[in-house]
């Protein structure tokens, strides 16, 4: 426990420093912001002393990813592994954090004001723009992190975006990113596994809930294997 807290402390210092450098580099070399983000994500793996495993393949057709959420490492590992320029859909509050918020605005990520009545219209407009420009949307349909091992109910935003813009959905299940626990201020060594599921047939009216069930089944199976 002491080691994991010491590691969390030094990782936090490194994270804040490296984010500042990344923001500066993206500001100066904005056309290369995807390469800069990927290099930064690789640095986080080296500093975090964790390994990565990829099962399956990212679909060339998919233009929106539905991802389970356990920690900020979810974003970092996908920034390293995914071959395309991801566009994260995040809480607007993150964009308001000094310096760190620029990591959303400079690469044109999408921020959402949940309380705003006009946020859905802006979200759809921004999402359509990013997809037209070859970006792949990435969203946590639970809306927040789950610490229980069970997926939280999926919010309706992902369904609305997908159906309004006629997007191709690929679910992504991530195992092991809970080695970083902000609440306990600890960061353990470990392996993180990213599992790419098949793209979803969205003609079924219950496709979002069915997708949640499939993702939960994969989570349960992986955790059972780890505990076997």
TrEMBL record:
Residues 63-177 form the Phospholipid/glycerol acyltransferase domain. GO terms for biological process: phosphatidic acid biosynthetic process. It comes from the Bacteria. One of its GO terms (molecular function) is 1-acylglycerol-3-phosphate O-acyltransferase activity. The chain crosses the membrane at residues 9-29. The keyword Transmembrane helix applies. Pathway: Lipid metabolism. Keywords: Acyltransferase, Lipid biosynthesis, Lipid metabolism, Membrane, Phospholipid biosynthesis, Phospholipid metabolism, Transferase, Transmembrane, Transmembrane helix. SMART domains: PlsC. PANTHER family: 1-ACYL-SN-GLYCEROL-3-PHOSPHATE ACYLTRANSFERASE. This is 1-acyl-sn-glycerol-3-phosphate acyltransferase.
């Amino acid at each position: 426990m002491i080691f994991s807290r010491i590691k969390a402390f030094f990782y936090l210092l490194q994270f804040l420093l490296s984010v500042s450098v990344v923001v500066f580099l993206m500001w100066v070399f904005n056309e290369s912001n995807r390469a800069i983000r990927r290099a930064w994500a690789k640095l986080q793996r080296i500093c975090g002393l964790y390994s990565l495993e990829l099962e399956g393949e990212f679909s060339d057709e998919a233009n929106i990813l539905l991802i389970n959420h356990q920690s900020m490492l979810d974003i970092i590992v996908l920034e390293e592994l995914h071959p395309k320029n991801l566009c994260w859909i995040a809480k607007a509050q993150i964009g308001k954090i000094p310096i760190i918020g620029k990591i959303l605005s400079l690469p044109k990520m999408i921020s959402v004001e949940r309380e705003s009545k006009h946020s859905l219209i802006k979200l759809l407009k921004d999402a359509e723009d990013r997809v037209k420009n070859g970006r792949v949307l990435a969203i946590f349909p639970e809306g927040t992190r789950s610490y229980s091992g069970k997926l939280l109910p999926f919010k309706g935003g992902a369904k609305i975006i997908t159906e309004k813009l006629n997007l191709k959905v690929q679910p992504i299940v991530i195992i092991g990113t809970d080695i970083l626990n902000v609440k306990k201020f600890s960061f353990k060594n470990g392996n993180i596994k990213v599992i790419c599921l098949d793209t979803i047939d969205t003609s079924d009216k219950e496709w979002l809930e069915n997708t949640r069930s499939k993702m939960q089944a994969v989570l349960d199976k992986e955790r059972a294997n780890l505990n076997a």
